[in-house]
Amino acid sequence: MHTAAPIVCFGEMLWDVLPTGKQPGGTPFKVAVHLQQLGQEVRLISRVGDDELGQELLAYSAAQGLDCSLVQQSETHLTGVVKATIRAGQAVTHTILNPVAWDYIRHTDALRAIVSGAAMLVYGSLATRSALSRETLYRLLQVASFKVFDVNLRAPHYTWAGVKYLLRQADLVKLTQPELTEMMRWLGQPADEETALPWLAQQFSLQAVCLTKNRHGAALWTGNQLFTHPGFAVAGPGTSESAAAFLAALLAGWQARQPPADSLRRACAAGALAATPQPAQPDLSALLTYRAPFICYTPSPGR
Question: Are 69 and 96 in contact (CB under 8 A)?
Fold first, then answer.
């Protein structure tokens, strides 16, 4: 039975429509599902349409054991959909339909009460593309005790001003190598991880900055040290599923006050497991037994 304060995930809950069919999507939603599998008390704040697709998402969530009592239902906007298009010889392109139900998450006293008592509030940039959900998130950030910003840049659904505001609210930031490169270009700073991560932490008063590098593992700056992990070899490519699993495991480790190196190793293991081709949702509760070397880097004085 769960007794700890919950981790609250805020943002998009949708269907990814692929040439092979549809699957549950939305980074906050998938992070919440993986946190649930890892034994965390977790709540999801989102909004779906009062339609068949919305009911299917809620049924899927219930089957996963995820508490969706804070997921609102809209009679005026449809459940979110992301359409994937594959053209010969080109990369897959994704169209995030707009506007949809999760663009209209409404602030309520119940949401505020849950967030004010939560262990963490996890959020990204995509849910701030619309005025109403953005205002709701901004109000919840005011009462959150520990804020996790999963940057998740999706053009054209963000602005630098908005991303900078979300950075200033955060305690822990997770981003990819392309996102780091773009953000440091905005800030006029080099994007080398050994200098960029501590610079971001100092500039934005962050307790931790985590950089994911797909097949090349990840790096975590916290406690004035840079921890790196080479990652695990997997048969499949990195996916949004593996990114969500990585973040969920990292946050579970942070919540349990695990040593940073252990949290990073387990996060890489979770991402690798979720990227491994298999017929069903990966069961993350069985992971975290992998071992691999890590590097702890401490900058020299004056660097």
Answer: no
